[in-house]
Amino acid sequence: MEMMVSMWIVVLSAILGGFVTVKWVLMSVNWWVYETKLGDKQYCLPPGDLGWPFIGNMWSFLRAFKSKDPDSFIHSFVSRFGDVGIYKAFMFGNPSVIVTMPETCKRVLNDDNAFKPGWPTSAVELVGKKSFIGISYEEHKRLRRLTAASINGHEALSIYIPYIEDNVVSALEKWSELGEIEFLTHLRMLTFRIIMFIFLSSESQEVMEALEKEYTALNHGVRSMAINLPGFAYYNALKARKNLVAVFQSVVNERRSRGKANASSLKMNDMLDALLDVKDEKGEPLDDEEIIDIMLMYLNAGHESSAHTTMWATVFLQQHPEFLAKAKAEQERIAKKRSPTKEGLTLVEIREMKYLSKVIDETMRLITFSLTVFREALTDVNINGYVIPKGWKILVWFRSIHLDPEIYPNPKEFNPSRWDDHTAKANTFLPFGAGSRLCPGNDLAKLEIAIFLHHFLLNYRLERVNPESRVRYLPHTRPADNCLARVNRLTPSPPNKY
Fold it and tell me: Is the distance from CB of 48 to CB of 81 less than 8 angstroms?
């Protein structure tokens, strides 16, 4: 009997030893492939690990972000390797370095000589090789200069206000009559309609609904694992991109034909017309691929962040009556001061919304719509005594900064009043990134959100059907039920126009 027990102990020990050995071998594959070839530089890499072969640290990343505690992913690095703010990992198919502190983020985001965009190949394939995430620094600077005025200039923002306001007012009135709706889904359609008008002057409901569905599939695939098999997000996203490119190619063809037929009277009405009219230093126009990729990028980014931020700001205010009262009182003061003969909000009034601006900033901080951006080292770079090897990816982890208790006390608490006596230090508030590649649509996004909240606070309230709905964190933070709710009007009839 004792001999049998001893034999089983030996067998189990052998099996356990085998598992340990296999695990050690597997965990050493990425080290052998990516680190040993660095020579002595491997000993200067940041602390961390490159995880399993091929998948690296992605399983632990996905597991954390599909749980109730997405920050457990970074916390695991901190607990194992110390709070150094820079860690090596294997993410999205590449050896990478994750930076989580303001100073390291500042260095990466602002040093264009040492770092270039480093988005995963799969993301570049989906968004476009000639979009802002796939082009060189010089080309990015040129195209940004050509396009930014169309969406962020003072004149452009003033022009868009009446259109945005008309759509917000009519949408809220319609939603209040529909009963239960997916609040986030309807907000995404609203912001998509607005961005479509700005970029394409298109108001076809049928076309917009079809395009918005394709953009949803595209967006879900951008940060997914690049598995091009049926049933996976990346596979669906590639199909969506193909469909979107076909639609936009037909629009570009139609615009070019219209331009040739009406060359003498052609007038730039929207951003597509502006892009078609652009000439480089040699007098050459942009080619179709450049135009389509830029449009796809802007249209995708231009409605997702606005819709999600608007939804969460509305939800957070409803959850905190004291902040709701302050925000509403400010909007009532602005509306009361308005001359009876004046129609609609003005840019001056929107810039007077000081407290509402704090609400929006606090919402963007708390949800951190884009949890990271990607860069790639152009050369070996030394940061805080560690070497980031040439060709390695860098993930600037915004979420860690926005939820750092040393920067923002009680960071997971929604508190717009924290901004009353708080001026964000450099690189501690990065909802739109930083440096030369700062999101060019930041002012337009905040304009949309402010206009919506102005009318919502004055005339409506949100009644969620499942206030305890589980929160999903990928690709962006949102309730699992897309905020199923009723939009209830506070007055028996809609207000007169503004």
Answer: yes
Q: Is the pLDDT of residue 296 over 50?
A: yes
| C-alpha triplet 253, 258, 259: angle, nearest 5° | 100
pLDDT for the residue 205: 66
Tokens of 77: 């690095």
What is the 3-class SS of 54-119, one letter each residue? CCECHHHHHHHHCCCCCCHHHHHHHHHHCCCCEEEEEECCEEEEEECCHHHHHHHHHCCCCEEECC
List the end-to-end C-alpha distance of the chain, in Å, as a whole number. Answer: 89
**What number does CATH give the domain 31-129+369-402?**
3.30.43.20
- 238: tokens are 């590639």
- pLDDT score of 12 more than 70: no
Contact 143, 134 (CB under 8 A): no
Contact 345, 498 (CB under 8 A): yes
Structure tokens at 354: 């000081």
- Are residues 294 and 132 in contact, defined by beta-carbon separation less than 8 angstroms? yes
3-state DSSP assignment of residue 181: strand
Higher local confidence (pLDDT), 77 or 112: 77
Q: What is the SS3 assignment for 394?
A: strand
The domain locations on the chain are 31-129+369-402
Instruction: Determine whether the annotation assigns residue 44 to a binding site.
Output: no
User: What are the tens digits of pLDDT across the range 193-237?
Assistant: 888 888 777 655 666 777 888 888 888 787 677 788 888 888 998
Helix (H, G, I), strand (E, B) or coil at 339: coil
Burial class of residue 265 (count of CB atoms within 10 Å of its CB; 0-12, 13-18, 19+): exposed
Closest CA to 374 of 174, 164, 109: 109
pTM: 0.86
Q: Which of 330, 357, 331, 461 is nearest to 416 (CA)?
A: 357
| Coil/strand/helix, residue 214 | helix
Residue 238 CB contacts under 8 Å (≥ 6 apart), including other chains: 125, 126, 221, 228
